[in-house]
Design brief:
heterodimer; A: mainly alpha; two-stranded antiparallel sheet; 16 helices; globular; B: 476 residues; alpha+beta; Beta-lactamase; 2 domains; 5-stranded antiparallel sheet; 19 helices; elongated
Chain lengths: 461, 476
């Protein structure tokens, strides 16, 4: 696969903006038809914020086009479409809550948050010239990440929701700092691993087993353990699992040593069993995973399998094509608009719709991997691969938890689930990925600006 | 680093394949089993949005129907006769899957129509038409039910009317009760809060089938049937002292004044019956022994739950509570049971069945609320055939009990005329200062209806006059 020295890549401006417009059109059609079916009209706050969202999405697309013309074109449109599908579903569930006599406005709030997230992303794309500067601040980022992670433990501002203490209340609104902690710690890890990369490929022998040297692994393991301790104290193993995936993925990419993956998995399994033994919340999660349909577990008042089983009922009710937006009864599952949006979407859109959503995710993830592979900068490579792998693993953990592949965790579905902090953090990841794509690429690598340039994934030479 | 990145990407592809497969499993492969799970409120909500068959009275009056509604559920269940027929229809609410009456017993028939739900969904893809729904016709005679309900209004009590020859339930009324229309509202919050308050205050309970009462002297039907089988004729003399002392020191005493009590310690079986002599039946029960009494009770249907309608492929069966003798192994309790003061407890439906056995020449028919199912074109799809439960009496013995019941009416409530009846005033176990009244009987000239009435905090003559009114209405 040798390429001729390629001239300057063709700038195909129309593509990204056109695709974004298409995504907006599809999302708005879904939203409008759902609203018109259930309410007969679209109230003006929705029209207004929706208009702002669309304008912000177009602005982002234009900015990316100007600043990073060579970046992968599918990222912004797919992100926009996923966010709009999420908003449609959250609003649809709001309407059902209203029908049941307790109106909520999560949909409208999500729309406002989308505007905020798009604005932040636009800012990053427009003004963040060189992400490599982040490396110089990596230890500060580590500190900020750990502080953010520990924030919910501070009495007074920490909030306990659904058994886990991962929320922080500031003034009027709550947010989940761990979403941002993930970003900061990812930057620290990428930077540390990049600096110490060579040493990681050495090893010391203990008997016949080759182990990484303690000297190199020490600081990393220390942060790792600290993160685990904080998250266990907060009672959230799901986020803990996501962090483990982030670190393990990054270390594997940096060192090429499978032993690190084994270490990570072993550490997590040990942690899991320790927690199951120590805390009843965790062992009850395992119980309901193993016996979801047991009557005793279904009807017990604390830690019952009710939500899990209701989610499965919703999946079954959706069948192949789903009921369609506006029909069905997606609000019957508790937390149908956040933790269980996967199953409520399965009821509305059916298995086919879920496959399309998973394909959209895969599109973003592939784009992330392509970016990681074609960038020459090792720090950017590690950062991109860590972020994108943790995103993929998060999706797997949630969908796997709902469909009983894994025990249920309290993670939220990226872009879809109701929640401002995760939506903002997810868009920030996309913005970072696109910024990383700005960095120099190997000259013999791919230069294409295709919708999804897959050539980087091919084995070179 | 790109090599390990590529491996990581393949790992992600595998993870996505896993969740696609697991979603496919629950959404498609396992979906029918999920749909059939009784806890599946999601599937139930989908059912709420479907057209549902009608419930009809024996004369064809509509007791429950689904009307087109403008909201998300498409159809609104409504009960034109409201609370009067609540124990018959049950209710169809968003608050809970059907749990009472014909709505529960024939849930599957009413909701699925002639095909299954899945078959219907599948077929409607091709022809765009929904399969015709199936209506359920009950045995309930609307005028009798209305009369019973209006007589019960403001009181606490219940009325059961059955056709002794077929077991058809002609009326099943209970008061206080509930309006099923209020529970059928589509506002889930309202429906749920009403449902939970009804569940707590007992409005949902059907006092005719879900409430156990002490049988009192109505139990004498059972003991005298046994006496007739043991060769004692109605004119045969039985011991009937004024008081009868039990080993523990407890005393059974005759309550109804009878001049012969003071002079003789014995009287005829017929006199003992018509004067409801507690001592006579206490002594008889002790004489026959626990085993004989238990066998006779079982022959009348005591000891097991009575299926009122449904079950099997129709829906969950609507069952009455099981009546029982209590622990008659204890000889003292055996005597008290004979006197109607033991631990035995019966449903009002069981009372109607006992009286019905006398009216139907000694045969107990299985009670049945539903007559048949009809297609929307009024074509008969299935019929519930009358079915015999047992024959505790011979025809001869039944006639002898009948004449003893007639003389009881003449002695205790002559205003009822030639009705054959039993009546009792019993102490309520939980509230000793309150007496509940039971009356059950039929017209020997027209033994096609047997009526049993229970009134809380009342006396036997009120219950008897209510019974008389219902009998008159039923004979029209």
């Amino acid at each position: 696969m040798r390429h001729k020295a390629v001239e300057k890549p063709k700038r195909r401006r129309g593509g990204r903006i056109g695709l974004t417009l298409l995504a907006i059109l599809a999302g708005c059609l879904a939203f409008a038809s759902m609203m018109l079916k259930l309410k007969g009209a679209i109230p003006w706050p929705y029209l207004l914020t929706g208009g702002v969202d669309c304008a912000m999405a177009i602005l982002l697309a234009i900015l990316v086009d100007r600043k990073i013309p060579a970046s992968i074109r599918s990222i912004v449109p797919v992100g926009v479409l996923l966010s709009l599908v999420g908003i449609t579903q959250i609003t649809r569930i709001d309407l059902e809550y209203a029908q049941n006599g307790s109106p909520t406005d999560f949909g409208l709030r999500q729309m406002i948050w989308l505007a905020v997230a798009l604005a932040i992303s636009s800012f990053v794309v427009a003004f963040f010239a060189d992400y490599r500067k982040l490396r110089s601040l990596s230890y500060a980022f580590m500190a900020i990440g750990l502080i953010l992670l520990a924030l919910p433990l501070v009495p007074g501002i920490g909030e306990k929701v659904n058994g886990a203490k991962v929320w922080v209340k500031f003034g009027g609104f709550s947010w989940q700092p761990c979403e941002f902690a993930k970003l900061f710690l990812a930057i620290f890890f990428a930077s540390y691993l990049f600096t110490h990369r060579d040493k990681f490929q050495e090893k010391s022998k203990v008997g016949k087993i080759k182990l990484p040297r303690l000297k190199d692994a020490g600081p990393l393991a220390a942060v790792w353990i600290l993160v685990a301790v904080i998250l266990v104290a907060e009672g959230d193993l799901g986020i803990c699992l996501m962090f483990f995936a982030l670190f393990t993925g990054m270390v594997y990419v940096a060192s090429k040593k499978k032993i690190w993956v084994l270490c990570g998995v072993a550490a997590f399994v040990i942690l899991l069993f320790a927690c199951a033994g120590l805390f009843p919340t965790f062992s009850s999660r395992i119980d309901i995973w193993l016996h979801p349909f047991s009557k005793q577990l279904y009807f017990r008042s604390f830690g019952s399998s009710y939500q899990l089983v209701q989610g499965l009922f919703a999946l079954g009710a959706g069948g192949l094509f789903g009921t369609g937006f506006g029909a069905g009864y997606p609000a019957l599952t508790p937390f149908a608009n956040s933790d269980f949006i996967y199953s409520s979407l399965a009821e509305q859109l059916g298995f086919v719709g879920i496959c399309l959503l998973l394909l959209m995710y895969l599109c973003l993830i592939t784009a992330g991997f392509v970016i990681a592979m074609r960038t020459e900068d090792g720090f950017g490579k590690l950062l991109a691969s860590g972020l994108v792998f943790s995103l993929a693993f998060q999706i797997f953990t949630i969908a796997g938890g709902i469909t009983l592949v894994l025990p249920l965790t309290g993670l939220t579905m990226p872009f879809l689930a109701s929640g401002g902090s995760s939506l903002t953090a997810d868009w920030l990841i996309l913005a970072l990925l696109m910024v990383i794509d700005k960095s120099p690429r190997p000259s013999s690598g791919s230069e294409g600006t295709g919708i999804l340039d897959l050539s980087a994934l091919r084995r070179s030479k | 680093m790109n090599k390990s990145l590529r491996q990581l990407f393949i790992a992600v592809l595998v993870l996505f394949l896993v969740i696609t497969c697991s979603t496919f499993f629950w959404s498609i492969i396992y979906a029918p089993s999920l749909d059939a799970n009784p806890e599946n409120t999601v599937a139930f909500y989908h059912e709420v949005g479907m057209d549902r068959g009608e419930i009809l009275s024996s004369g064809g009056e509509i007791l429950a129907e689904s009307r087109k509604s403008g909201d998300t559920f498409n159809y609104q269940r409504s009960y034109p006769e409201g609370a009067a027929f609540a124990p018959v229809t049950g209710f169809f609410s968003i608050a809970t899957p059907p749990s009472r009456g014909v709505e529960m017993g024939y849930d599957k028939v009413l909701s699925e129509g002639s095909g299954g739900v899945w078959q219907q969904k599948f077929e409607s893809i091709f022809d765009g038409q929904e399969e015709g729904e199936v209506d359920v016709e009950t045995n309930v005679e609307a005028p009798v039910q209305q009369e019973a309900y209006s007589l019960l209004k403001g009181k606490t009590g219940a009325v059961v009317a059955i056709d002794p020859k077929t077991g058809a339930i002609l009326a099943l009324a209970s008061s206080p009760t509930y309006d099923p229309n209020l529970l059928a509202v589509h506002n889930a919050k309202e429906a749920r809060s009403l449902y939970s308050s009804y569940s707590q205050d007992g409005s949902l309970t059907d006092l005719a089938t879900e409430y156990l009462l002490s049988p009192g002297s109505t139990f004498n039907i059972l003991t005298s049937s046994l006496a007739l089988q043991k060769g004692i004729s109605p004119s045969g003399q039985v011991q009937a002292p004024t008081t009868f002392k039990l080993p523990s020191g407890m005393v059974v005493a005759n309550r109804v004044y009878y001049p012969l009590y003071t002079m003789h310690s014995q009287m005829s079986l017929s006199d003992a019956f018509s004067h409801s002599s507690s001592t006579a039946f206490a002594i008889l029960a002790q004489k026959f022994g626990a085993q004989a009494l238990e066998e006779e009770a079982a022959a009348f249907g005591l000891g097991s739950q009575i299926r009122i309608c449904g079950g099997g492929s129709n829906g969950s069966a609507m069952l009455s509570l099981a009546s029982s003798l209590g622990d008659v192994g204890d000889s003292e309790n055996l005597a008290l049971t004979g006197a109607g003061e033991g631990t035995g407890q019966v449903t009002l439906l069981q009372e109607a069945m006992m009286v019905g056995a006398v009216a139907d020449r000694g045969t107990v028919m299985r009670p049945s609320l539903v007559k048949r199912t009809l297609s929307s074109g009024l074509q008969v799809l299935s019929v519930v055939p009358p079915s015999r439960l047992s024959s505790p009496l011979t025809s001869q013995q039944a006639q002898e009990v009948e004449s003893m019941m007639e003389s009881l009416t003449a002695v205790q409530d002559p205003s009822l005329g030639k009705t054959a009846s039993v009546m009792a005033q019993v102490k309520d176990g939980s509230q000793p200062d309150r007496t509940d009244a039971i009356a059950a009987g039929f017209e020997p000239s027209d033994p096609n209806v047997a009526v049993a009435v229970m009134l809380e905090n009342s006396n036997a003559s009120q219950a008897a006059s209510l019974m008389g009114s219902v009998l008159k209405e039923a004979e029209k």
